[in-house]
Amino acid sequence: MTTEAAPEGPLALQRKDFVTDQEVRWCPGCGDYSILAQTQKLMPDLGVPRENIVFISGIGCNSRLPYYMNTYGFHSIHGRAPTIATGLRVMNQDLKVFVITGDGDGLSIGGNHLLHVMRRNVDITIVLFNNRIYGLTKGQYSPTSEFGKRTKSSPMGAVDTPLHPLSVAISAEASFVARSLDIDQKHLIATLERAARHKGTSFVEVYQNCNVFNDGAFMEFADKAVRADRTVRLEHGQPMLFGKEREKGIRLNGTTPEIVEVGNGVSESDLWIHDETSEDPVLSFILSRMHWPDFPEPMGVIRAVERPTYESLVQQQVDEAIEQQGEGDLDALFMEGDTWTVE
Amino acid sequence: MSTGDGRRRSDSQLDQIEELDRVTIRFAGDSGDGMQLAGLQFTNTSAVYGNDVSTIPDFPAEIRAPAGSIPGVSSFQVSFSSYDIHTPGDQPDVLVVMNPAALKAHLGDLPKGGLLIVNTDEFTEPNLRKALYAANPLEDDSLTAYRVVKVPVGSMNARALADSGLNTQQIDRSKNSFALGLMFWLYERPLDSTIRWFEEKFARNPEVRDANITTLKAGHNFGDTAELFPVRYHVAKADLPPGRYRNITGNAATALGFLTASKLADLPLFYGSYPITPASDILHELSRFKNFGVKTFQAEDEIAAMGSAIGAAFGGYLGLTGTSGPGLALKSEALGLAVMVELPLVVAMIQRSGPSTGMPTKTDQADLLQVLFGRNGESPVAIVAPATPSECFKYAIEAFRLALRHMTPTVFLSDGYLGTGSEPWRVPRVDELPRIEVKFAKDPDTFNPYDRDPETLARPWATPGTPGLEHRIGGLEKADVTGNVSYDPDNHDKMTRFRAEKIARIANDIPDLEVVGDESGDLLVLGWGSTYGANLSAVLRAREQGLAVSAAHLRYLNPFPSNLGDVIARFDQVLIPELNLGQLAMLIRSRFVVDAATLNKVTGRPFLIAEVEAKIQELVGSKVKV
Fold first, then answer.
1. Mean pLDDT value across residues B61-69
2. Contact indicator for B196, B45 with CB cutoff of 8 Å
């Protein structure tokens, strides 16, 4: 590059280019602000022209996010964002499509669509804000609320067993599965970037604090003071070490994970070496079931495997049909089968 | 036009050919007996021969109800004629039954003196019991009112195929071809079209191909030699307008129409759909058209199908989904979203009997009000409704034309009778068809997401990928012009009225309602959708009898053609026959404050001409002009 030429065009964008003139209306202190900020910061780095970025959401506090992104945006209806994203991506593969959803939107009312978009591997990035509560409707329990959770709609405690979002994603054949935390800004933007660069459906669960209806839901392990001891950063090809001094590790005993102190005969090579590319989903699944206080909460990319995207396969069939049958001739198609002429 | 029973003696009795101007045949048998196939082949052959044809299949919802049972009976009725006909016939002239259950289920529709062709081989003790016959009707005098021709179809077929190399079961499956061959002989039809079809259909299975051709010919020869029939019948070619023709079902015409709209608008077509009777054939058809660039998406459910079509429309493509009544109920919320975001897309709605699962393979017109009003809030959509199977082509194109020009979801409202019925289609040439103009917003300096075209009130279509037009849409109420979220009370009132007015102004863009018959008179028979054939035929008969009756048929249900009120006002009475309990009638009464008479039926079957005729007689029969 010559020194005279300043960078031009879409790649010269900055965070402010992705900020809209709309007033952000989340409650003060909401974890959504951080996710929005990291998302806006990430955009210029993706190298995608702004007009080719689309944010699609459903309903819920999280789903307001598209209004605050100066890209194309669609704030749709409850749970259905993946369906709109699918129709759009199948027809236009130049677009970078994000789906913004939450634990209620994605796992309750929209559970079916979430399953199917992931198994098809439509090339979109799904960010699921998990605050384990219904915020917009003012405080009912959600599909990720803990068993026994007392809320406005469960005064004696919820009797519903919660879902593990990452387990759902892995079982639904998602090709990219990760987790991050609203207040861990560096980790969040790095995780979102990995997800955005993945070809196929990338699914990111973000632990997000609702300071009004479920304050401190994740603080037992998310608080900076204890985070190093109570979460484990996953890094591909690296042993699972955690603790302030990286003195603890996860070892696999068959398919049972266990916490061990490193040293005293346990070396790093004895630990579980993270392999996000493993075709076998069993190890990913074990990670998705590890939760505080039994284990440190795994953070980062759990799974990242390559397989063809849905829309590329659809396009391939169109291309093959044209190659085999030639470009469609409508007049010939009209006259398919038995025809006759009346003079 | 003939209105009688269509029988006319030929001048010469020597060749023992009787000249008829219309014949209606019903093939009935077990659902595994191939009656639909036999009926379709008879139809195609008659159409190619030059008759006008009209068909109605009738099959059970179960893939295989218990063999030999009455619920397992499947039938196909074809009417063919030497003149222009509008229905598949009220009653069959000929009933072909392949087993006792078929006889039990259909004999009631055969008029006395009708020709009854019976496959005697299936009239065994167990089969008679399954059909709830205490005694064999072929052996008592219960059928003396009919001209019964007993043919051992099963054993004749087996004998014809003894050397075919097929096993007994495979051989038995070809017996419909034997029966078809016999019917071809009786009505002087050539075999070549069906033979060609076998050659294509079973190209990879030569034994089955040869067996079907052999037994088809055997059935034909059997007619020649068995002397079971004193005469053969001839139905001359119909005097159809000049052109190239093929026989087509409504659903096939619908799929071709949507494909053609894609060509005329020069926009790729996306079809998102969840399989549902009787709309699935549209999915099957469109999924064959990949070399036209069509992308079909079999969604996880009806909601996803609707959502995906919205996504395609948002992207600037032809977004299409298809369904039937229960599916539309599921799509309702998302269709409301399409209304709110004012994107152009089409919902192909092929009605069936409801409510709930209802009778999936039977027809109804009982979803008109669901389509019009089945969403929360004031949520208007445009609605077009074809009247005949071949018209489905034209109105599928029209649905997209309106959607694109007026930036609105548009419902293409068909039904099972139209979708599965067939008739000759005069095939157009693509270059004869008017192009559909599409405008995309491009200019960032003048763009506002909810600006409106001063004439149509349509908002601009700005699609992702267009630099400088980045904007957000959604289900929350939008501020006028800017499209920002707005809770302003006056804005909501204004936007609600815009959405209503935008649909109302479509009336300026559609043709006036035409009247068949005099422009004024004692009675107007006003219909919509698949009742067209019965209504028109009944009106034409009434006019021949001197009654001052006219017919008009609505192809546009929202908005109505702008002259509808004037047309109604020129008649003393209006009669609205519908396959529901009076849905269009409710709309007409409230909109025009007229005391419309109704004729309603919800049997899952279309009107007979005679039913509409009787109602006309009841209303104005005493007013015969002298």
1. 81
2. no
Mean per-residue pLDDT, B324-346? 98
**Of the partner residues B293, B297, B472, the one whose CB lies closest to the CB of residue A318:** B293
Do B366 and B579 contact (CB within 8 A), yes or no? yes
Across the beta sheet with A202-207, the strand order is A231-233, A297-304, A176-181, A202-207, A124-130, A96-102, A53-57, A72-75, B472-474
Contact B289, B257 (CB under 8 A): no
Question: What is the percent of chain A where pLDDT is above 90?
Answer: 94
Q: Say what the pLDDT of residue B63 is.
A: 72
pLDDT at B224 over 50: yes
Closest CA to B350 of B261, B274, B427: B274
Enter the ipTM. Answer: 0.96
Query: For residue B7, is pLDDT > 60?
Result: no
**Nearest-angstrom CA–CA distance, B554 and A110:** 39
Task: Please report the pLDDT score of residue B286 as a whole number.
Answer: 98
Which of A16, A24, A51 should one mutate to test binding to chain B, selecting the residue with the greatest count of B CBs within 10 A? Answer: A51
DSSP H or E segment with residue B178: helix B175-186
Quick check: B580 and B602 in contact, CB under 8 A?
yes
Query: Does B267 contact A at CB distance below 8 Å?
Result: no
Residues 183-222 of chain A with CB under 8 A from chain B are none
Q: Is it the case that residue B519 has pLDDT exceeding 70?
A: yes
Chain B residues within 8 A of A336 when measuring between CB atoms: 246
B510 CA to chain A: closest CA distance, Å?
A: 26
CATH of segment(s) A10-238+274-318: 3.40.50.970
Is pLDDT above 50 for B6?
Answer: no
The pLDDT score that the predictor gives to residue B551 is 98
CA distances from B33 to A17, A220, B221 (A): 68, 69, 21
CA distance linking residue A248 with residue A270, whole number of Å: 12
- Percent of chain B's residues with pLDDT above 70: 97
Q: Chain A: nearest CA to B466, how far in angstroms?
A: 6
Strand ranges for B106-235 from DSSP E: 115-119, 147-151, 232-235
Q: How far apart are the CA of A238 and the nearest CA of chain B, in angstroms?
A: 39
pLDDT in tens, B526-550: 999 999 999 999 999 999 999 999 9
CB proximity A318 to B under 8 Å: yes
- A219: confidence class by pLDDT, cuts 50, 70, 90: very high
Candidate from A84, A112, A334 with C-beta closest to B301: A112
pLDDT at B5 over 50: no
Window B:96-135, CB contacts with A under 8 Å: none
A99 pLDDT higher than 60? yes
C-alpha angle B212-B218-B219 in degrees, rounded to nearest 5 = 90
Q: Is A335 on the interface with B (CB under 8 A)?
A: yes
**Chain B, window 525-564: residues with a beta carbon less than 8 angstroms from a chain A beta carbon:** none
CA dist., res. A264 & res. A249, Å (int):
13
Cβ–Cβ under 8 Å, residues A55 and A65:
yes
Helix axes A111-120, A81-91, angle to 10 degrees: 30
Residues of A in contact with B293 (CB under 8 A): 318, 322, 328
What average pLDDT does the segment B92-114 reach?
96
Give the nearest chain A residue to B295 (CA atoms).
Answer: A314
CB-CB neighbors (< 8 A) of A74 in chain B: 314, 341, 472-474
Domains and CATH numbers, chain B: 7-235 (3.40.920.10), 246-432 (3.40.50.970), 515-623 (3.40.50.920)
- Closest residue, chain A, to B297 (C-alpha): A87
Q: Do A334 and B47 touch (CB under 8 A)?
A: no
* Torsion on CA atoms B120, B122, B125, B131, rounded to nearest 10: -110
Instruction: Tell me the per-residue pLDDT of B567-602, one tens digit each, with 9 for 90 and over.
Output: 999 999 999 999 999 999 999 999 999 999 999 999
